[in-house]
């Protein structure tokens, strides 16, 4: 699978011109990823999950490509509205919506929602009467890097009752949805989930429902440090199952990581070195409270490419804040580094800057667009 990756030379020139830390976004890679999905999952209507990376340029690029959007909050709905994206292109896909979120949905005209509980039905019926709703079903998948089903999804046995209540409350019961968990490494979980929801569609039909939409959520993976995932194979397998099980249903998906994960590189510098208990320590100018927040929130193991030859030593890599939690990795094999050395982290577009903070007064890492600057690279 193809990822955006700066050369050593480009990394050095950008670091000199813009200083570090620096995030470099490739909009061509966003386009490549979007078109890849359109090619391998041709029936799927893509709702880009803004939470993965809400950068305006990424969102605008996705919009220009024809994407719809999965939004999780009032903030995301207002951001997209500011960018001129119509409410008809959004699904408010947070099973637990805030009063502010529902008020903004009502005001802006967002009328597609997901839910997994009875209490949410009454909230939606009151705030957005007649809205189209998809019931999120729990599909366990311990193989996902982030198992969202520990928090979300109605139990299969509760589905008929919840659909009935939603209908009785005047909502437009459009269909079902699921999320197999983020960074799900094979098609297996998707296929298992498709069989589960097929049964639920059939049972609902017997009760007089005409479920017309299936939303297969996110979960599509990107390459990791130790595996170059075969996304074409995964998508083809999912597509075959969709054709067999849901030939006439409208299919939606909410990919986040897949759209933006491979499109961003981070350049950091070593700002301090230390030796502690016979182990080298390297302090970087970005850390757990910044673009590497995904070490905690996303359980991600990031590449740290120094473009340096030489023997490798178990090393500790830490961020710049004054908190002892701010250690990215211990015993990471690294060559000897010095202050000023640069490190490249590719595949870091998803759940990185999105969850960064300004703790200790460190500003969030600036972002530039590769296609705006690449002609300047000699
Ligand atoms: N949809 C929902 C409701 C989510 O909660 C998430 C991620 O948390 C996504 C989509 C995006 O998932 P992924 O990044 O795995 O594609």
From TrEMBL:
Ranges of residues in domain Orn/DAP/Arg decarboxylase 2 N-terminal: 28-260
Cofactor(s) needed by this chain: pyridoxal 5'-phosphate
GO MF: ornithine decarboxylase activity
UniProt-listed SUPFAM superfamilies: Alanine racemase C-terminal domain-like, PLP-binding barrel
Active site: 322 (proton donor)
The protein's name in its UniProt record: ornithine decarboxylase
GO annotation, biological process: putrescine biosynthetic process from arginine, via ornithine
Organism listed in the record: Selenobaculum gibii
Reaction catalyzed: L-ornithine + H(+) = putrescine + CO2
Keyword Lyase: yes
């Amino acid at each position: 699978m193809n990822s955006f990756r700066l050369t050593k030379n480009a990394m050095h020139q950008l670091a000199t011109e813009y200083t570090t830390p620096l995030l470099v976004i490739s909009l061509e890679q966003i386009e490549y990823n979007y078109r890849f999905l359109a090619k391998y999952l041709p029936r799927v209507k893509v709702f880009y999950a803004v939470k993965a990376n809400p950068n305006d340029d990424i969102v605008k690029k996705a919009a220009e490509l024809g994407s719809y959007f999965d939004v999780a909050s009032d903030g995301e709905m207002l951001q997209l509205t500011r960018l001129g994206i119509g409410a008809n292109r959004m699904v408010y896909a947070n099973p637990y919506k805030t009063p502010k979120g529902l008020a903004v949905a009502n005001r802006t005209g967002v009328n597609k929602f997901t839910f997994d509980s009875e209490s949410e039905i009454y909230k939606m019926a009151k705030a957005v009467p007649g809205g189209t709703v998809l019931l999120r079903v729990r599909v366990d998948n311990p193989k996902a890097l982030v198992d969202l089903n520990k928090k979300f999804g109605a139990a299969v046995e509760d589905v008929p009752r919840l659909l009935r209540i939603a209908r009785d409350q005047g909502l437009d019961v459009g269909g079902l949805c699921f999320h197999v968990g983020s960074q799900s490494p094979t098609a297996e979980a998707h296929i298992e989930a498709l069989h589960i929801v097929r049964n639920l569609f059939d049972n609902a039909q017997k009760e007089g429902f005409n479920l017309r939409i299936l939303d297969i959520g996110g979960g599509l993976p990107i390459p990791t440090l130790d595996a170059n995932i075969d996304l074409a194979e995964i998508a083809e397998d999912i597509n075959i199952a969709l054709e067999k099980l849901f030939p006439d249903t409208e299919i939606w998906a909410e990919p986040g990581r897949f759209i933006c994960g491979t499109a961003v590189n981070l350049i950091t510098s070593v700002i301090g070195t230390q030796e502690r208990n016979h182990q080298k320590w390297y302090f970087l100018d970005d850390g757990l409270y910044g673009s590497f927040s995904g070490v905690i929130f996303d359980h991600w193991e990031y590449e740290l490419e120094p473009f340096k030859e030489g023997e490798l030593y178990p090393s500790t890599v830490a961020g710049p804040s004054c908190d002892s939690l701010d250690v990215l990795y211990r015993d990471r094999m690294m060559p000897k580094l010095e202050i000023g050395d640069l490190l490249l982290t590719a595949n870091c577009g998803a759940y990185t800057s999105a969850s960064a903070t300004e703790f200790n007064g460190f500003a969030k890492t600036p972002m530039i667009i590769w296609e705006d600057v690449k002609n300047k690279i000699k």
